[in-house]
Each structure stands twice: as structure tokens, then as C-alpha cells.
Write a structure and sequence with these properties.
Blueprint lengths: L8 E12 L2 E12 L3 E5 L6 H8 L7 E6 L2 E2 L4 H7 E4 L11 H11 L4 H14 L15 H12 L6 E5 L7 H16 L3 E6 L2 H7 L2 E6 L2 E6 L1 H8 L2 E7 L5 H12 L4 E4 L2 E6 L4 H11 L4 E7 L3 H9 L10
Parallel strand pairs: 3-8, 3-9, 6-7, 7-8
Antiparallel strand pairs: 1-2, 1-4, 4-5, 9-10, 11-13, 11-14, 12-13
Helix pairs in contact: 3-4, 9-10
The structure holds adenosine-5'-triphosphate and magnesium ion.
């Protein structure tokens, strides 16, 4: 497919805004996605990920801001932009009553493939996504994971230079997720650029060359996974005290040892980001010296909540999402 291959950025967006009523769903998003990379957009429910993709994919008109896809303006050259992109939505974009094979053939034909070519492509893609056994079954009888795989397969019929994947692995079992990651890597190896949204830090970490963390329509952090993790800490310490009365002292002790902000999500519980998991040793020694008894302790990878806490100073609020 023709596109200006000397454009270093597959996507350049400046100040994208989308307002729904009085909700600034996307509130000034800048993105620079290098050609040939996997770019992760990480954020909780309602952060504005899908809305941002919809604008970049010319499905939704921005209220303000500009963006180009391989140098082509999304508002001035939408037809060209559409030829350069593939979009895999959060929800299946296929006909429920038809089989997987029939769906893929129809999409292939719509994209200009010949009859035999479309059929062969369908067979190959179903094989690649482990759906051969279910090829003749109507989509209505597919599980959620099978639908996701078929959805991605559809977007790969004509492998476009830029592929938007909106939460491609949400709801998949671990094995299928790993398989999906391998497919995404293969797409990039064969020349595509990928923008993927996810709510999973580990997924962005595994796949993305760069990540934009988005919250309430804003990019709150941007960088390589290593840069982001360095700013957040690679581990999270969770401690439950024997006695609620010790909480203030324990918080002070941990803050002094780890040089970080300690949160108290529950009366006896403290959580803190750690640069290295072995920081826990010093914490335990100091708590013992202070005669503070511990009921439970664990060290975990930071959750998305903790990343947000570290990056934005505010936790992801439950219940305010769509
Ligand atoms: N068509 C619409 N009309 C009105 N409000 C909308 C519309 N689409 C999205 N919103 C609102 O805009 C905000 C951002 O939604 P968006 O779907 O972009 O978030 P998201 O990051 O994709 O979330 P999720 O992880 O749940 O998919 C939310 O508050 C949502 O309710
Ligand atoms: Mg979404």
C-alpha cells in the first residue's frame, strides 16, 4: 500500500479534544507513534482510549486538535487515512449468524481479494488463530475469547501499515493472550505499526516500545516501559499490621526507609511502591526495631491502580466508569 515511508511517525497527534455534553472525554491528547513500533495506550475504564482511537481512525470528528497518519491529515485526507489503517474494535465487528469462514471471506471480498484468494486467506487466518475446528460454527456460538481472535483475524485480512487494536486481550485466558502477543509481534516484524490500548500494565510492558498512560482524557506519562517503571517502582509492598494503633508510626518508618509515599487503603493496611523488591528487608528490620507487629506481608508487581497512584497522585476511582 502506498504511503510516505519517509515519514518517521505513523501517528502524530496534537491537542486532540472530544467533548460529550459536559464530559471532556479526550482533553488535549498529544501522541507521537514511531513507524514500525508497538505503541501502548494504557489507562483505566473511561480514560478516553477508545475515543482517541476513533478520532485517529476517522470514525469520530475531533472537537479540536489535529492528527496525521503517515503524514496524512485525518480531517483533510480521511479517504487516504482509511486505506492506511485497520481497526480492531473492542467489540466483534462480524456477522453473528455467519460462520467464521464466511465472515472472513466476506471481508476479504470487500477488501478486493479474489474469490479463491479470499477463501485461502480465511483458511490461513483461522489456522493461525487456532479456530480451524470452529470454522463452520456461527459466530453467535463462539466464546468471548474466540470472538476476539476472530476479530483480530478480520483486521489482518489486508495487513495495513497501521493497525489499531483496542484492548485486544481483555477477557482472554492466559494461553490465548500469549498467542495474541506473538501474533502482534509478528505483525510488527512484517512491517506494520501497532497502536494498542490496554488496561494491563504487564501487557504494555511486554509488547510496547513506548507507552502513553492516559487518565481522564489526559496523557499523564509517556516513555519506554523501563522509563515508566523507573518512575513508579517495580514492586509494591503490602503490609497488614496486627494493630490499627500502629498505623501512623509504621507509615513513618516505611517512608523513611523507602523514601516514598505510603498509602493506607484500609485501617490496618499500608502499601508502598519499591524500586527493588529487596527493599522489603530493611522495612522489616525497622518495623521489628519499632516493635510493630505484622499480620500479613506481600510484595507484588505494581497494579495499574498503583501505577496511577504513583503517576497522578490519585487512585483509579471505582464506579465512575462506563
Ligand atoms: N458516544 C459517546 N457519547 C457520550 N459519552 C461517551 C461516548 N463515548 C465515550 N463516552 C464517554 O467518554 C469517556 C471516555 O470513554 P472511552 O470509551 O474513550 O474510554 P476508554 O478509555 O476506551 O474506556 P474502556 O477501558 O472502558 O474501554 C467516558 O466517560 C465515556 O463514558
Ligand atoms: Mg475503550
Amino acid at each position: 500500500m502506498k504511503h510516505s515511508s519517509h515519514t518517521p511517525f505513523a501517528i502524530e497527534a496534537r491537542g486532540l479534544v472530544k467533548v460529550f455534553g459536559d464530559n471532556r472525554a479526550v482533553d488535549g491528547v498529544d501522541l507521537h507513534v514511531p513507524t514500525g513500533s508497538i505503541y501502548g495506550v494504557l489507562g483505566p475504564n473511561g480514560a478516553g482510549k477508545t475515543t482517541t482511537i476513533n478520532m485517529l481512525a476517522t470514525l469520530l470528528r475531533p472537537d479540536s486538535g489535529t492528527a496525521t497518519i503517515f503524514g496524512h491529515d485525518i480531517q483533510e485526507e480521511p479517504q487516504i487515512v482509511r486505506q492506511l489503517i485497520g481497526v480492531t474494535g473492542q467489540y466483534a465487528s462480524v456477522d453473528e449468524n455467519l460462520s467464521a469462514t464466511e465472515n472472513l471471506i466476506i471481508f476479504g471480498r470487500l477488501l478486493g481479494l479474489g474469490r479463491a484468494e479470499a477463501r485461502q486467506k480465511a483458511v490461513d487466518l483461522l489456522e493461525e488463530f487456532g479456530l480451524s475446528d470452529a470454522a463452520k460454527r456461527p459466530i453467535a456460538k463462539y466464546s468471548g475469547g474466540m470472538r476476539r481472535r476472530l476479530d483480530l483475524a478480520v483486521s489482518l485480512i489486508a495487513q495495513p501499515p497501521l493497525i489499531f487494536l483496542d484492548e485486544p486481550t481483555t477477557g482472554l485466558d492466559p494461553r490465548t493472550r500469549t498467542q495474541m502477543w506473538a501474533t502482534i509481534r509478528r505483525l510488527v516484524a512484517s512491517g506494520s505499526t501497532i497502536l494498542l490500548t490496554t488496561q494491563y500494565l504487564d501487557e504494555a510492558d511486554q509488547l510496547a516500545d513506548r507507552i502513553a498512560v492516559i487518565d481522564h482524557g489526559h496523557v499523564v506519562a509517556e516513555g519506554t516501559p523501563d522509563e515508566l517503571k523507573a518512575s513508579v517502582g517495580v514492586a509494591a509492598l503490602n503490609i497488614t499490621l496486627d494493630h490499627e494503633k500502629d498505623i501512623t508510626q509504621a507509615k513513618a518508618v516505611i517512608e523513611a526507609v523507602l523514601h516514598t509515599t505510603v498509602q493506607s487503603p484500609a485501617p490496618r493496611t499500608l502499601t508502598a511502591p519499591m524500586a527493588k523488591p529487596d527493599g522489603v528487608t530493611d522495612v522489616l528490620i525497622e518495623l521489628r526495631k519499632a516493635h510493630i507487629g505484622l499480620d500479613e506481608i506481600s510484595v507484588q508487581k505494581p497494579t495499574l491502580d498503583e501505577v496511577f497512584l504513583a503517576l497522578t497522585g490519585t487512585p483509579v476511582k471505582e464506579g465512575e466508569q462506563s
